[in-house]
Amino acid sequence: MSSISRRHLLAGTAAVAALSAMPACAQSSAQSGAAEAATPDLSGKSILITGCSSGFGYLGALHYARAGAKVFATMRNTPRPEAEELTRIAEEENLDLAVMRLDVLLDYEIADAIATIERELNGGMVDVLVNNAGIGNGLTVELQDMDATKLIFDTNVFGYQRMARAVLPGMRARGSGQIFNVSSQLGRVIAIGYGHYCATKFAVEAMSEQMAYELVPHGVEVTIIQPGGYPTDIWRNSNRYTEQLLDRLSDAEEAAYPAFVQNAMRTGGGRDTDPMDIPHAIAEIIAMPPGTRPLRRAVHPTRIPQQVINQVSRETQLAMYGGSQFAPWVESVLD
Q1: What is the pTM of this model?
Q2: How confident is the model at residue 10 (pLDDT cuts 50, 70, 90)?
Q3: What is the DSSP letter of 40?
Q4: Is the residue at 233 inside a domain?
């Protein structure tokens, strides 16, 4: 085992087996207790987050700043009320939080934001990137026209790639850094009727794991966050994108999938869950010692079906690379 190996993955074999054996109520109690644990001290950390107008990004920006971090909370289309609200709270609480304009589809806005951050950090680079911005829509794969297909991949996959490429040169030069890519349960299991959303999250899973191996020699760690259903604005926004797609359907396309068209508008999910679970999990992992952070963290109080797949994937990767030149990298990420 390489000296840079992680001590063990949090969701390793024993943990998965124990959690799988718990009834749903016990799983909920165990994970809720972890979420309510004392907030770690993130003083001295600089954190860049995308998609901070709502949901995990908005909540995370405030949580990390309240934990002592210097936060760059980004969102598109500023000025907007959400940006003003974040700024107001930061000023009232004396938080080190700056709201910045950044659309992950626009290379020039990413470049402008990174240049501003580097100036703010006196030529340095952020310690942590949280790739969170994303969109969704309903309907079947065939009914996703190319405009919808390009937009969801451009946002959910290529947006993560653009942001990673923007921060990695500085992280590699420094020899340290963390990237969190927010995926989904649906990056491992299929929800029928979610069109390309699952496909984009499967791509995020693969891209993130590949990056994790490749960045071992550079001291940069990657963690994939896998939320289950939570009551955030992704549902409202998803309905907006789905409605636009419905308006573009032909009569023949509607007739091909009547049940999916009729039920395309989502009413929301995870109403009994707390979206703060995700910022809590990310903050906890940021505070962990280098070399002990997990590649994946499934986050939901009761439903984590992807854990079995995560474990099988881990064992398969270790077996495939055992004894190869890449074995130390794979072992350092997965063990």
Answers
A1: 0.87
A2: very low
A3: P
A4: yes
DSSP for residue 233: T
Cis peptide before 79 (omega within 30 of 0): yes
Residue whose C-alpha is closest to residue 286's, from 83, 13, 68, 32: 68
Pairwise CA distance, residues 88 & 152, whole Å:
31
Q: How far apart are CA 159 and CA 131, in angstroms?
A: 8
- The pLDDT of residue 185 is above 80: yes
Report the CATH number at residue 146.
Answer: 3.40.50.720
Cα–Cα distance measured from residue 212 to residue 235, given in angstroms and rounded to the nearest whole number:
30
**Which helix (H) or strand (E) element contains residue 70?**
strand 70-75
Mean pLDDT computed over every residue of the chain = 89
Residue indicated by tokens 């809720």: 32
Identify whether 118 is part of a domain.
yes
Q: Is residue 23 part of a domain?
A: no
- For residues 178 and 11, give the distance between their C-alpha atoms in angstroms, rounded to a whole number: 19
Kindly state the helix (H) or strand (E) to which residue 299 belongs, with its residue range. Answer: strand 296-299
Give the structural domain span for 188: 39-314
- φ, ψ at 200 (rounded to 5°): -70, -40
Amino acid at 186: L
Spatial separation of the C-alpha atoms in residues 131 and 277, rounded to whole Å: 16
Overall domain count for the chain: 1
User: Can you tell me the distance from the alpha carbon of 299 to that of 83, in angstroms, rounded to the nearest whole number?
Assistant: 27
Catalytic position from the list 62, 104, 198, 264: 198
User: Which residues have a Cβ under 8 Å from the Cβ of 27 and sit 6 or more positions away?
Assistant: 19, 301, 302, 304
pLDDT per residue as tens digits for the range 61-120? 999 999 999 999 999 999 999 999 999 999 999 999 999 999 999 999 999 999 999 999
> Do the domain assignments include residue 325?
no
Based on the residue annotation, tell me whether 198 is a catalytic residue of this protein. yes
Packed helices 159-174 and 197-214: angle between N→C axes, nearest 10 degrees: 10
Helix (H) or strand (E) holding 224: strand 220-227
